[in-house]
Amino acid sequence: MSALAIAHMPDWPAAMSRDLALAYTGVAEAQLRAWERGGKVNFRARGPRGGMLALRSDLDAALAEMFTSTVEEDLDFG
What we know:
Elements: H1 3-7, E1 15-16, H2 18-25, H3 29-37, E2 44-45, E3 52-55, H4 56-68, H5 71-74
Antiparallel strand pairs: 1-3, 2-3
């Protein structure tokens, strides 16, 4: 799916492939993998031909948690 097609999607699906999840959240691949390691986002073989999908609600929760952290937690000026 092209970036242009994604930008014009009226609604995001309830479950997404890795590429779509990255487009939806706008985070880097490394962040998505960190969420997976932490158990916040889980990809499961549920899509066509066994494609791995993650729930949009899990992605939303991970994003919300990312934005609720305080500046003091995120920055260390030594």
